[in-house]
């Protein structure tokens, strides 16, 4: 029976129908008499049934995995009957296809835990999480806000609300990526709530405002502590690096059961504004609007002193910080620094940009080293996020990238040094703007999101780090999803095993009522399926080469020559024109099915 069925029915990707009437288990599909809507739904049902039949015929049994039996985190020791059931072994074909599986995570709402440290509206969240799980989503990502957990005073941590949230995520059978969010929420694109830094930190800033990033005019940005205070003991005797380290150690202590249970698999370490390793060069709270070039953020007294020391050591005590780089909403050509034959091309400009970008990399390196110590031996992956500054990418000076701290030019790679630094900590390189295409952007802003993504991902793969990513803006259309699918597997799937290039994971931004609307969610579910290479949800990370061992100690610190060597530009890997795992929206699917229906009568 199975052979007869599979010889008659083909997948939606092509083939023919051997008969005008298809008999299923107790049902008949007759295109001549069935209403159009019913025909569409029935065709989709036929396809799903045949795929299940084929899987049963190849393996002798269903390859369904019961994901509801997920380990509870009530204790740090798991009994045998608490362990998840071993997944049924798939066929050889499925094993090879699983090598193309890219797990999909969904970012939870920014305010899922309130400013008062309360997990509000748990019934709604439970319903939404179950919908995600039913859609095949692998897990969720959540900001664990410093400003909420340590709000009552230094080292006074309250993890109770997050533990309640994590318990619910676990009960719903999802994995968890936790972000150590040391930044303020509010002021960036998509920020729907405001969550400030801990009040006791802001109080220190009242007497010493230079703990915050500062532009040339002296405007303070309270989104994240300046990296100038990383090693300044001004926080009740602690340096900023210790603030972050102590927070992560407390997280590990209070979440050890969830870590040991395999619920928490990633720790993304916030390293700057919006959790990204960058300077807050563009922020709406100070008047920036797209596509302004932004401003350098190194004019607090701590960074000014560090630059003066560096310039003096290089034999140029007369050099100061830039005073000709324009303002937030300028264009490159309107400034002396970024314009034609601008300061950025001079010896002085190159020295400054090297210092500015290296300070950022060193900051990330130091905090990740502390994260490695905090989670040493845990079965988790560390991760760090880099921003997709795609505007002015196609201009000679890459001005918006330079003000953000990414010293990236045609003859200098500004991202591979970061990837090399991350490789020292076995950390995932998480990049943004995966969904964007050049054709969707303003021509006058010289945007290049596609080329940027290709450069950054290629650099990460060359440095042998795991590369993950997310969309920068919420999208619900097939074009955005298809661009993400293309970037996840630039050269398509491999039916013989692991593709040449494949992303480690994709996080969709973000869970909302809009996403869960019928049409939007239908397209999203197809997107998840295509990220999974048309395979069913797989609970066993090892089956798609994502097994996580105990975190090893970071490798030795890189010397400056190692980082500078990584700035040598290299051609990106080849990229396909479009994904071979395409998502069609409902109208596209309907049109395709109608074409197939008409073909029945030819």
Automatic annotation (TrEMBL):
Active site: 276 (proton donor), 470 (proton acceptor)
Its EC number(s): 3.2.1.2
Enzyme class: hydrolase
Recorded catalytic activity of this chain's protein: Hydrolysis of (1->4)-alpha-D-glucosidic linkages in polysaccharides so as to remove successive maltose units from the non-reducing ends of the chains
Alphabetic keyword roster: Carbohydrate metabolism, Glycosidase, Hydrolase, Polysaccharide degradation
Any one GO biological process: polysaccharide catabolic process
Binding-site list for substrate: 143, 183, 191, 385, 390, 432, 471-472, 510
PROSITE patterns named in the record: BETA_AMYLASE_1, BETA_AMYLASE_2
A Pfam family that the UniProt record links to this protein: Glyco_hydro_14
GO molecular function list: beta-amylase activity
Family the entry assigns: Belongs to the glycosyl hydrolase 14 family.
Name this protein carries in UniProt: Beta-amylase
Protein source organism: Gossypium anomalum
């Amino acid at each position: 029976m199975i052979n007869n069925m599979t010889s008659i029915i083909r997948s939606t990707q092509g083939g023919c129908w051997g008969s005008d009437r298809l008999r299923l288990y107790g049902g008949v599909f007759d295109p001549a008499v069935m209403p159009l809507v019913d025909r569409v739904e029935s065709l989709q049902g036929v396809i799903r049934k045949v795929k299940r039949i084929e899987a049963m015929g190849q393996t002798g049994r269903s390859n369904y995995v019961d994901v509801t039996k997920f380990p509870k985190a009530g204790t740090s020791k798991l009994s045998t009957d608490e362990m998840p059931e071993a997944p049924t072994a798939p066929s050889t074909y499925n094993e090879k296809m699983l090598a193309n599986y890219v797990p999909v995570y969904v970012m939870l709402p920014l305010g899922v835990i309130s400013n008062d440290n309360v997990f509000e509206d748990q019934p709604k969240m439970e319903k939404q999480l179950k919908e995600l799980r039913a859609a095949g989503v692998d897990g969720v990502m959540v900001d664990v806000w410093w400003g909420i957990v340590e709000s009552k005073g230094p080292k006074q941590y309250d993890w109770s609300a997050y533990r309640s949230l994590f318990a619910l995520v676990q009960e719903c059978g999802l994995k968890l990526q936790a972000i150590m969010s040391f930044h303020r929420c509010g002021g960036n694109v998509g920020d729907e709530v405001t969550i400030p830094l801990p009040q006791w930190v802001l109080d220190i800033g009242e007497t010493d405002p230079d703990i915050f990033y500062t532009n040339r005019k002296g405007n303070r940005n309270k989104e994240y502590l300046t990296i100038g205070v990383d090693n300044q003991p001004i926080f009740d005797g602690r340096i900023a690096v210790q603030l972050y380290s102590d927070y992560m150690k407390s997280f590990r202590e209070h979440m050890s059961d969830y870590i040991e249970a395999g619920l928490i698999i990633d720790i993304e370490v916030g390293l700057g504004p919006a959790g990204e390793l960058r300077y807050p060069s563009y922020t709406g709270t100070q008047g920036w609007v797209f596509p302004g070039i932004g401003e350098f953020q190194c004019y607090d007294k701590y960074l000014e002193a560090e630059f003066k020391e560096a310039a003096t050591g290089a034999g140029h005590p007369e050099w100061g910080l830039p005073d000709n780089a324009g303002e937030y909403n300028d264009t490159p050509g309107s400034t002396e620094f970024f314009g034609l034959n601008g300061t950025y091309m001079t010896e002085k400009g190159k020295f400054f940009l090297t210092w500015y970008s290296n300070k950022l990399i060193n900051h990330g390196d130091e905090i990740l080293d502390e994260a490695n110590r905090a989670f040493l031996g845990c079965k988790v992956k560390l991760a760090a996020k880099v921003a997709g500054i795609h505007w002015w990418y196609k201009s000679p000076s890459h001005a918006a990238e330079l003000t953000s701290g990414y010293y990236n030019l045609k003859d200098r790679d500004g991202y591979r040094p970061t990837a090399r630094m991350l490789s020292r900590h076995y950390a995932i390189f998480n990049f943004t703007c995966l969904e964007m295409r050049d054709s969707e952007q303003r021509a006058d802003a010289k945007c290049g999101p596609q080329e940027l993504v290709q450069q950054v991902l290629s650099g990460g793969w060359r440095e042998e780090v795991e590369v993950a990513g997310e969309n920068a803006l919420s999208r619900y259309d097939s074009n955005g999803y298809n661009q993400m699918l293309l970037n996840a597997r630039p050269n398509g799937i491999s039916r013989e095993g692991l593709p040449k290039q494949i992303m480690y994971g994709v996080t969709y931004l973000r869970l909302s009522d809009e996403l869960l609307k019928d049409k939007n969610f239908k397209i999203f579910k197809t997107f998840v399926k295509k990220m999974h290479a048309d395979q069913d949800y797989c609970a066993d990370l090892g089956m798609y080469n994502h097994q996580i061992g105990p975190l090893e100690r970071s490798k030795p610190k890189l010397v400056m020559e190692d980082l500078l060597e990584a700035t040598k530009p290299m051609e990106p890997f080849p990229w396909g024109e479009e994904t071979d795992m395409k998502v069609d929206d409902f109208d596209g699917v309907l049109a395709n099915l109608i074409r197939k229906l008409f073909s029945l009568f030819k």
